[in-house]
Amino acid sequence: MRSFSISVVIANLNQKEMLRECLTSLELQTYKDFEIIVVDNGSTDDSVPMVLEEFIQSRRLHGQVISNTVNKGFCEANNQGFAASRTPFVALLNNDAAAHPQWLEHLMSVFDDPQVGMAACKILVYEDHSRIDKVGHLIYMDGQPRGRGSGEIDHGQYDEIEEVAWPDGCAAIYRREIIDTVGGFDEDFFAYVDDADLGLRARIAGWNCLYVPKAEVYHRRGTTLGVASVRRLALIERNRVLLAAKLYPWHVLLLNPYYYFLRLLSGVWAAVRGKGETAKFVGVSGKLRLVWAMLEGDLRAIPLLPRMFAKRKEIEKFRKLTPSEIRQLLQRFRISLRTLNEKSN
Predict the structure, then answer these.
(1) Residue 265: C-alpha distances to residues 139, 238, 291 (Å)
(2) Phi-psi region at 174: left, alpha or beta (left = phi > 0; alpha = psi -120 to 50)
(3) pLDDT in tens, 307-316
(4) pTM of this structure
């Protein structure tokens, strides 16, 4: 059996046409030493036959399809892909994204340093390549992550290779050693904030992350649940609580209610002026839906807290950073409240 350097894992659910475009972009890669692993979450739109017939059986791409009968979510599906791969590097690519032909080539160029365990991409909005979706990640001190540069016009301000907190799960690459050491995605998260959890675990284990601006990906935003989806917001809110409970040093975690309260106040002020994400929830009814989503997320996090606290013991097995160094890392890549609440994704 032929061996490869990279496995590109793609989770899919009923996005046959977008998946076809995604795979076509991989077919055009200048870096050829890779395989694909498509994990299908129970699609009913003939996604699986399309991948098999058009790409794998025709030998346009090397790889395999894992077919689930039900939707196992982003986390479990990608973990299935991780488990099926045997390559030194594992890349992620959303099915609603298309990669620049030199995407993999540029990503692989930064791994000469053994401390670099992850690489982040320049992810641009599919419909408007001049607008940034994400260029790495930032985080607020209560556990709320946000894509760096999200919503900005790309005029070269992020065109240097530089360290970032961790990559976005839409398009990323990891050393296999990271997955073997810290594990894959936490399946309790199901979807959203999962990439922050994996990335922060890798940072705690001592690896760095570099942002590679020439590794471009074009992403259709909100195709899974929609950017103004109440379910999406509830999952993000729930999972930011789980992330903090699982990975934050105790002296930072105890301040979580304080930081959360500051974020709420800032969000209310942004809502009054029609700024940021709150502007997508129109009128009083829209704002009430937003408040309910956050409350629902917090309430849904509570039953899972004992599980997250128990997982803190697992972190100790690979932890290289001290609690103080973890706090410094969070502060170094901290997003301001103004950027978090007043700028639109």
Answers:
(1) 17, 19, 12
(2) beta
(3) 999 999 999 9
(4) 0.93
